[in-house]
Amino acid sequence: MTPAARVQAAIELLDGIISAAREGGAPADRVVADGLRARRYAGSKDRRAIRELVYGAIRACGPVPDTGRAAMLRLAELQPELAESFDGSSYGPASIGANEKAAQGGVAPAWLAERLAASDIAGEEAEALLDRAPLDIRVNALKATRDALELPVAGEPLLAPHGLRLPAGTPVEGWDAYKGGLIEVQDGGSQLACMAVGAQPGETIIDLCAGAGGKTLALAAAMENAGTLVACDTNRQRLSNLRPRAERAGADIVTEILLNPGRELDALDAWRGKADAVLVDAPCSGTGTWRRNPESRWRITPDEIERLSALQFRLLEIAGQLLRPGGRLVYVVCSLLDEEGAALFGRFTAACPDLLADSPAISAGRSRGSGTRLTPYRDGTDGFFFARAAKV
Ligand SMILES: C[S@@+](CC[C@H](N)C(=O)[O-])C[C@H]1O[C@@H](n2cnc3c(N)ncnc32)[C@H](O)[C@@H]1O
Q1: Is the minimum distance from the CB of 299 to ligand 1 under 6 angstroms?
Q2: Which residue, judged by its Cα, is nearest atom 3 of ligand 1?
Q3: Any ligand 1 atom below 6 A from CB of 212
Q4: What residues bind S-adenosyl-L-methionine, as annotated (predicted)?
Q5: DSSP letters of 332-353?
Q6: Residue 184 pLDDT
């Protein structure tokens, strides 16, 4: 493909991503994967170049652009050599019109950038939300140790004791260590947040929003595969992905429970007042994960944040009911908005006199309210807020 044809292909994919973002359709990575599969003539170098252009353009536009072409013109403002590809050639984009406007830059739609700024995420802190994410793995302590494990590519040790950082795009899924469950892909910040649970062997721990089990597996390793680990979610598909991962990791203590949204406690009655710890890795706006999903900032709405905050609060209330006296509640969100993080947790503990905020002994990140904040800019991790409370 010519450079111009690659740019045109990227513009077409961007059009699909923009419509999907507006209509709540498929995420960008799926639109890109499907779009590239349909372009059989594109070789591996073309695909890489097109992907690079698409994600470069997504990162370059703050608000959702009107068209893929406007998004690409915005990228051309930052990479002027790209303008040469607008040459009107047969497979390339039409020449740039005299008054043609590029899409607007910025970190996010204005309203969202303002809310981040109100949570002290502005300037370089905000820009770093759109950096390219590295690839972090966690060495599964049930099967290996970070010091002794030999991998095809040596990783850089992370602050999290089992974490290693590899260059982005390292094909770990093909490695024997991955297939054998010796390593899992997990952001270093996520690994640190799991440590806040202080999971011990023999305990009863509930992972209330387990998804496909990223944090569940880290908890199983911390528990040395001894005790009871209940992994819950309302999403059947995500939860069903946990079982093969747990088997690969050798985590035998995990029991999955599918929850009914709005009636979560129905399936958890047996655990009321019994848990040593409950992890609430709550659904959130994901403002801390834009490095991986930069187009997700085009999907968030004020209404959605309000809906999520209400759900987060309710999940914390449920967690409080599952804890035994002296048990630990750990709240985690991969958002940097205080309304989902420090402010929400403060509001919750203020409303629940039987839950007292305490600090997990982890020397990472910075205090935010009664919890801890990790950011891409300062910690090189995804953005997280996590906090802990003890049941009296
Ligand atoms: C941040 S994700 C969890 C990620 C997972 N813990 C991990 O480390 O990979 C939040 C999860 O909450 C789930 N969820 C949404 N509503 C829920 C509810 N009412 N009860 C329990 N889980 C819920 C979502 O399906 C999603 O899987």
Answers
A1: no
A2: 211
A3: yes
A4: 233, 281
A5: EES---TTTTHHHHHHHHHH-T
A6: 97
Backbone angles phi, psi at 255, to 5 degrees: -120, 130
pTM of the shown model: 0.95
Q: Which of 106, 17, 98 is nearest to 60 (CA)?
A: 106
Q: Ligand 1 pocket check: which of 234, 296, 309, 314 to mutate, most ligand atoms within 8 Å of Cβ?
A: 234
- CATH, residue 221: 3.40.50.150
What's the 331 CA to ligand 1 centre distance in angstroms?
12
**What is the radius of gyration, based on Cα positions, of the chain?**
22
Residue nearest to atom 19 of ligand 1 (CA): 261
In a domain, 60, yes or no: yes
Residue 289: inside a domain: yes
DSSP assignment of 179-193: HTTSEEE--HHHHHH
Query: Strand 275-281 vs strand 228-233: parallel, antiparallel, or unpaired?
Result: unpaired
Q: Is 281 annotated as a binding residue?
A: yes
**Residue 267 has what pLDDT?**
96
Active-site residue list: 334
HSE, side-chain direction, 13 A CA sphere, residue 119:
29
Quick one: pLDDT at residue 360?
A: 77
Domain count along the chain: 3
Same domain, 85 and 156: no
For residue 386, being part of any structural domain is answered with: yes
Clarify whether residues 235 and 281 are in a common domain: yes
Ligand 1 pocket, 355 CB below 6 A?
Answer: no
Q: What is the pLDDT of residue 157?
A: 97
Answer whether 235 contacts ligand 1 (Cβ < 6 A): yes
Q: Which residues of the chain have pLDDT under 70?
A: none
Question: How far away, in angstroms, is 232 Cα from ligand 1 center?
Answer: 8
**So what's the pLDDT on residue 362?**
81
ipTM (interface predicted TM)? 0.99
Residue nearest to atom 25 of ligand 1 (CA): 235
Examine the domain organization and report whether 287 and 205 are in the same domain: yes
Cα separation, 70 vs 9, in Å, equals: 14
Which range of residues forms the domain containing residue 168?
Answer: 135-185
Question: Do the annotations mark residue 131 as ligand-binding?
Answer: no
Query: Is residue 69 in some structural domain?
Result: yes
